[in-house]
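Slide 14.
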Amino acid sequence: MSDETTKTTFSFQTEVGQLLDIVASSLYSNREVFLRELVSNASDACDKRRYAALTNATLGDGADELAIMLEIDLKAKTLSVSDNGIGMNYDDLLETLGTIAKSGTGAFIEAVKSEEQDQVGLIGQFGVGFYSAFMVAERVDVLTRKAGEDKSWLWSSDGKGEFSIEPVERETAGTTVLLYMKKDAKEFLKDARVRHIIRTYSEHIGFPVKLGEETLNSASAIWTRPSKEITKEQYTEFYHAASHAFDEPWHVMHNQVEGAVNHTTLLFVPSAAAFDLFDAERKSHVKLYVNRVFISDTTKDLIPAYLRFLRGIVDSQDLSLNVSREMLQTDPTLAKIRMSITKKVLTELKKKANKVPEEYAAFWTNFGAVLKEGLVEDSALRDRILEICRFASTASGEMTSLSDYVSRCKDGQDAIYYIAGDDAEKVAKSPHLEGFKAKGVEVLLLSDHVDEFWLQHVTEFEGKSFRSITRGSADLDKIGSEEETDTVKDDKETEALSALIASIKLELGDVVKDVRPSKRLTDSPVCLIADEGDIDVNLERLLKRHGQLQQGMPRVLELNPNHQIINRLAERAKSDGAESDDLLKDAAHLLLDQARIVEGEDPLEPTEFVRRFGAVMAKAL
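Slide 15: predicted structure.
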């Protein structure tokens, strides 16, 4: 803790200042949520003190009467939200109320500034918490004392760029948030208005929320009640408060499990992806309770990382209240709860996928890339996860399951074909698809970073192997009817093409592994592929980006034998003097660079590319 003994003024983190401006304006029409956020924070503080008291008896005084108190002072035009929870010290105030330690903050700020975006929806994805107080207050004071410590502190700010912290006196542990209300926020100084907000948004809070002597909520944990007694609106408000979210939950799972391990779950699948979904820490956002006593909101092994989009609670009757958060990591009971929850969630998602495929497609757009991480990490449930995976494909504009893909396979097709890349739009336009589209062979279009990695663990589905169309031979000859086979070239055309291939090989040398006629191209003149047994093109690109591969393998350059450019070059390669033909030499490099550009890579030698392109243009003109 700092030794500060006088009032000190600080500047907000840049992102906080920007967020305060946005929140104050964007949520004007829904300002009442500030009270929900502050009461929810107070509830969390009470939860944390009750948990801390389990292992530190000195924190137990008053912990049996934890509550949240609201007070209105009409004369001073203030509203306060107080709790006797864990409280904060000097360092906590600096860290909690001066910065935003959230991944994606910068992206959030930029997105929410756009007039084309749904600002309330975006703020809901990010969560505003304590800072929502500045929607209604011209100044906010936070008087706090951390349980088990002697010093008390006053944090104060008008939300316009700076805040101060100074030592003060407070008799008991806990926190009071005092709001000096704006002139246009006087409605929140009326008892009836405050009662309505609490009963609408905070009925589920597990601690008494009091206005004077009156308790405004039932103060019972919502998950302990039978699901048939809980309305959709009550579930939604619990989700909003527990998750600090504004979106509607897409799916609610409320289950009481009795058997080898007893536990209750109330889990929500959001309808919008949070901004920290792809944060490197991959934190769970499901809170763990033991017999309704809050234990942790970051229990690592409660929910697998690939289900981190879930929000809600798990309450176990079979875990020990005295278990430390460190011991939880190896507790066999927790492992059983985790497996039970995971299986239930996957079952529920499968039901949704079958019953409401359009809704499920929207869910998959939001969270599919996260869910597919389970194909790499969870071998025990890999088959279940694979069943609920959905993929874009060349068959139609809709997402497809692997089972549906297999049902559409053509005669002679023994593989599930796919193409992977970083950009969905570029993948869909890749020249590698041309021959497959011409033969009506469906190809999965994969554009999530995780795709290449789960494909290293999943080798087949329903007897059909996964095969990249950017690696090895296309094998299109044996698929479909005989009428679909390629036109056979005469001997002269074959001889000319062979001469061109020999010329290109000689010019490019070791830069390419081989030059071959292509069966996968119908419109484009060239493409690059990985040879059979080599690393796939996209996987190599990802490994290089992450520093796991320094030098890539030379690729195979495929030529479209039916393309006009290739035919003209072939005729030229067969003519006398081809060995010293500068245009053929330049064309060899330009074809390679064209194939690289289509793959999203730069020409090998940009300066030479420009020179060669100019020389060929000059000859053409």
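Speaker note: The domain at 8-220 is CATH 3.30.565.10 (Heat Shock Protein 90).
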